[in-house]
Specification:
It is an enzyme of class 2 (transferase). The protein is 46% helix and 13% strand. It has 561 residues and is an alpha/beta fold.
Length: 561
């Protein structure tokens, strides 16, 4: 038996089965210079490949909305122009020109700080592969010989791959590349099956037909285990299935402690599909709607009407709360249709509310769309990256302008729409008492707040171990924000990853957090934790934790190492 330890779990669970190694056809590309008289022919070949790919994607989009984005990208005039110009100027064939154009696009996305957007490079590579297959007339299906249950082991799996196999046969995924926000990870969570991604050199360690135990609870892969180990894991798998069923029964129950403290468990979402899935998990509303995906998964700045239709549907679905964060984008999050100046430190650069306040027409378009949608549900507006009262007041003034314009047109909206801000910088923590007098709610963004408070780039592997939201400075900042909010009678939520960390749940409950917003998959487990604890006990724990001056001491109080 061989054991492989894995750092990143994309979807938790345990799977036991035979390994099915995904073998994909290599597409050979010639880089020879073409003759001038062949330029028109190569452009025609590319256009035919695009047309065939569009037809394929239109069929796939009926079943999976992710292919709508692929359609947008493959039809994008920017991609077309880039490929054609390379055919003409570099005198390369369509395949080589496409590869060069795609490489440029991937470079843009890989420079984005947001992990979710970085993982969209998998979609770009999928588009590239589809176009190359159509250019070369290749129709290879790597799953055509899969006719029984198995665990997929692959270099990576694209959206097109996952649309090709029979999900009834797939027990789990193991990929050599990819990240926890990739399409295959999202698919695995949707199917409720385990997935381990980014497992180095896995293809050289597993043979077709090997018996595999995927322990995606503890980050382990066991190859050809003995009978005793198989028996133990089979019992654990059955136990987990029963627990999952028990948690699902909490869907209609409130998140209320044993001594009567009620909190809201909301979802972080980026699409209508996410909201529908979150409803199935028993969400209390949407605590963070990432509106930037409307911009990043597009070929142009979305119009008022395009945004309004999405926000309206989201409002109708979300019930008690839909908190829409205004555009949170910047030098580290690129748009294919807008050129950002290169910045030496994009984390401290032109981003989020700074862009919105500079591009006022774009900002007002978004605010107007949100206001119009507020007539159809409990919508809240949240401004990101606020560091000064001047910024907050400028944003609120623009919002008032939008309200007056709608009033003049007799267009309805929620006249009492609530406005809040993200607390995600040291400046916002220090000014929180003042902000609390001018907004209706706070939402703590622990991802950036931890990074900025500790001066740690969370994407830098050399110092990533220093990035820790259990640091006393972070915890005391969270306590300060919650106290300031409650002192001024406003609610305080949290939409950073820390809100879904089950190890921190009792602490955050004790600090008085009103709303936990997280990935919808985490809601049942968090609800179970809340319902099985008392607020009074949690307060005592939180008080002890905030007295500690080292991370180790914090861990000891919370009972883990």
């Amino acid at each position: 038996m061989k054991t492989i330890h894995v750092e990143r779990t994309a979807s938790k669970g345990i799977a036991i089965g035979k390994a099915y190694l995904v073998d994909k056809t290599d597409l050979n590309i010639s880089y020879d210079t073409i003759r001038e008289q062949d330029i028109t022919k190569e452009i025609s070949r590319f256009e035919a490949a695009v047309a065939n790919s569009v037809r394929e994607l239109e069929a796939l989009a009926v079943k999976d909305k992710i292919f709508d984005t692929h359609l947008e990208m493959i039809k994008d005039i920017t991609l077309y122009d880039s490929v054609v110009s390379k055919i003409k100027e570099n005198r390369q064939n369509a395949e080589a020109s496409l590869e060069a154009a795609i490489a440029e696009l991937i470079e843009i996305f890989e420079g984005i700080e947001d992990e979710y957007m970085r993982e969209r490079t998998a979609d770009i590579r999928d588009i590239n592969e589809r176009l190359l297959c159509n250019l070369q007339g290749v129709k290879h299906n790597p799953f055509e010989n899969m006719n029984e249950e198995a665990i997929l082991v692959a270099k990576d799996l694209s959206p097109s791959d996952t649309a090709s196999f029979n999900t009834d046969y797939v027990l789990g995924f193991i990929t050599q590349e990819g990240g926890i926000t990739s399409h295959v990870s999202i698919l695995a969570k949707g199917l409720g099956i385990p997935a381990l991604v980014g497992v180095k050199d896995i293809l050289n360690q597993i043979e077709p037909g090997d018996t595999i135990i995927m322990d995606a609870e503890n980050g382990k892969i066991l190859i050809n285990p003995d009978n005793n180990t198989l028996s133990l894991y089979e019992k654990e798998r059955i136990h987990q299935l029963k627990r999952s069923e028990q948690l699902s029964q909490l869907k209609e129950l409130p998140a209320i402690t044993k001594d009567g403290r009620k909190v809201s468990l909301c979802a972080n979402v980026g699409s209508i599909q996410d909201i529908k899935k979150a409803i199935e998990c028993g969400m209390d509303g949407v605590g963070l709607f990432r509106s930037e995906f409307l911009y990043m998964d597009n070929t142009h700045f979305p119009t008022e009407e395009e945004q309004y239709l999405v926000y309206k549907e989201a409002a109708q679905l979300s019930g008690p709360e839909l908190t829409i964060r205004t555009l949170d984008i910047g030098g580290d999050k690129a748009l294919s249709y807008y050129e950002f100046e290169k910045e030496e430190n994009p984390f401290l650069g032109w981003r989020a509310i700074r862009i919105s306040l500079d591009l006022k027409d774009m900002f007002k378009t978004q605010l107007t769309a949100i206001l119009r949608a507020s007539a159809y549900g409990k919508v809240r507006i949240m401004f990101p990256m606020i560091i000064s009262m001047e910024e907050l007041r400028m944003a609120k003034e623009l919002l008032e302008e939008c309200k007056k314009e709608l009033d003049n047109k007799s267009i309805s909206y929620d006249k009492e729409i609530k406005v809040g801000i993200m607390i995600e910088t040291p400046a916002s923590v220090l000014l929180v008492e003042d902000f609390a007098k001018e907004v209706d709610f706070f939402s703590i963004g622990t991802n950036d707040l931890t990074q900025y408070l500790l001066a740690v780039d969370r994407g830098n592997n050399k110092i990533s171990k220093l990035y820790n939201s259990f640091h006393p400075a972070v915890l005391r900042s969270i306590r300060h924000v919650i106290r300031a909010g409650h002192k001024n009678n406003i609610t305080v939520g949290m939409c950073g990853e820390f809100a879904s960390d089950i190890r921190a749940a009792k602490l955050l409950l004790g600090l008085g957090l009103d709303e936990f917003s997280m990935s919808y998959r985490e809601i049942p487990e968090m609800k179970n934790m809340i319902r099985n604890n008392s607020y009074e006990e949690a307060q005592a724990v939180a008080e002890k934790v905030c007295e500690k001056i080292t991370i180790r001491e914090v861990y000891e109080v919370l009972g883990f190492s």
